[in-house]
Amino acid sequence: MTDFLQIVANKFDFYKTITPILKKGVEASGVNQIIDLASGGGGGWMKLGDHVREEMPDVKVLLTDCYPNISAFEETVSKNPKLFSYEEKSVNALDVPDDLKGLRTQFLSFHHFKSDDAKQIVQNAVNAGSPIAVFEAQKRSFSDFLKFFFSPINVLILTPFIKPFKFGRIFFTYLIPLVPLFTWWDGLVSVLRTYSTKELNELIESLENSNSFEWEVSFVKNGAIKIYYLLGIPKP
């Protein structure tokens, strides 16, 4: 399923228009590093990494996760070792180690956290004086629910183009279609769990020392694709 999500993000260049947001956060951090939290396999960064390198040639991206997928991290790093590295130890997005400095990012993972935990993720960034940027590719709407309702068709179409070839992927896509089923369920639940603009603004207002940061809750467009984001940067 993560292979499918990665090829969609890279093939359709989902994050092409978010580079200015990342640049703003990196500059505010004073460190040429992005700390990617809840990275999963990290594969969604491949195409975005090209845009980041063009805009910020010296920046580095550190992949982290509470349950690090080391083999997937190694695969991502091998494709662009000048840009990517990874943390072998578990990194909890709710309590990021003090020695990890830079812009904190989350891609398509913030909705997995319950409201108290989501608040703690942002509060932890504020406490550390660390910029944070959270990105989602869906919102809680009927149109997005309908879009993800038909996602299994895309899985069936795109799976033959995913490299490297894995027999298990073919087996669990076409013979026993667990991957389409899980992708369908994950997409629908993600739509229902994604925080609305109102909820994100309420989260910000509930933070301690929230006025020490500048906040943006908005979206950017890449053709028909909308990427929704929350950006918090410390005030000068």
Which short descriptors sum up this protein?
single chain, 236 residues, alpha/beta, Rossmann fold, 2 domains, seven-stranded mixed sheet
In a nutshell, what does this entry contain?
By secondary structure, the chain is α/β, with parallel strands linked by helices. The protein has 2 domains: 179 residues, Rossmann fold (3-Layer(aba) Sandwich); 47 residues, no CATH class. Helices cover 45% and strands 17% of the residues.
Secondary-structure topology with pairs:
Blueprint: H1 2-11, H2 19-29, E1 33-36, H3 45-55, E2 60-63, H4 70-79, E3 84-86, E4 103-107, H5 115-128, E5 132-136, H6 142-149, H7 151-158, H8 167-175, H9 178-193, H10 197-205, E6 213-222, E7 225-234
Parallel strand pairs: 1-2, 1-4, 2-3, 4-5
Antiparallel strand pairs: 5-7, 6-7
Helix pairs in contact: 1-3, 2-3, 6-9, 7-9
Describe this structure in words.
The structure is a single chain. Helices cover 45% and strands 17% of the residues. The chain is an alpha/beta fold. It has two domains: 2-139 and 194-234, Vaccinia Virus protein VP39 (Rossmann fold); 142-188, no CATH class. The chain has a seven-stranded mixed sheet, with helices on both faces. A hairpin with a 2-residue loop joins strand 6 (213-222) and strand 7 (225-234). The termini are far apart. The model has no long low-confidence stretch (mean pLDDT 94).
| Number of helical segments with 4 or more residues | 10
The chain-level mean pLDDT equals 94
The low-confidence parts are: none
The CATH H-level homologous superfamily of the largest domain: Vaccinia Virus protein VP39
CATH topology-level name of the largest domain: Rossmann fold
Instruction: Based on Cα principal axes, name the global outline.
Output: globular
Helix and strand sequence:
HHEHEHEEHEHHHHHEE
